[in-house]
Amino acid sequence: MTDDDVAETGRALARRALELPELAHARTVAAYVSVGSEPGTAALLDALRARGVRVLLPALLPDNDLDWGEYAGLGSLARVQHGGKMALFEPSGARLGPDAVTAADVVLLPGLAVDARGMRLGRGGGSYDRVLARLERAGACPRLVVLLYDTEVVAHVPAEAHDKPVHAVVTPSGVRRFPGT
């Protein structure tokens, strides 16, 4: 996809996501800054912030766990190179600690795919598995939403015993909710 295609897809994704009742009523949303070929999140982050939503963004720790910081606009992001991994855009302000995510009403998750059961396939680093386990231990029950391209909603992805289904997937063409979540 060209840069223009990615930007337009990001705007379409933001429009669809902002229609979610969960986001309409959210006070705090844990999100992420898209990188590489991921569906763009910039428009959504700015729209949430304009609504007065507190947006938390992750900062990768050396052990692949995630710390969190507040999003204060694109100028508040720093490009951080993590060893041999890809560079990420992280909040440059104060760190709130890994448990800050437990205050989120909605957690927007990156992924490579989601299947008909709502099972999400991540990148394999385990960062979001740790986040989901942390939420469960804290008794927090935010709505879990994956942001993907339409072609990344597939029939089946591999899942392990610790994997939990998400509540919904948002793509540029619409929202799909999963039964039982």
From TrEMBL:
Its EC number is 6.3.3.2. The keyword Nucleotide-binding applies. The keyword Cell cycle does not apply. It holds the Pfam family 5-FTHF_cyc-lig. InterPro entries: FTHF_cligase, FTHF_cligase-like_sf, NagB/RpiA_transferase-like. Keywords: ATP-binding, Magnesium, Metal-binding, Nucleotide-binding. It catalyses: (6S)-5-formyl-5,6,7,8-tetrahydrofolate + ATP = (6R)-5,10-methenyltetrahydrofolate + ADP + phosphate. Its cofactor is Mg(2+). It is an enzyme of class 6 (ligase). PANTHER family: 5-FORMYLTETRAHYDROFOLATE CYCLO-LIGASE, ATPASE INHIBITOR/5-FORMYLTETRAHYDROFOLATE CYCLO-LIGASE. Belongs to the 5-formyltetrahydrofolate cyclo-ligase family. NCBIfam families: MTHFS_bact. This is 5-formyltetrahydrofolate cyclo-ligase.
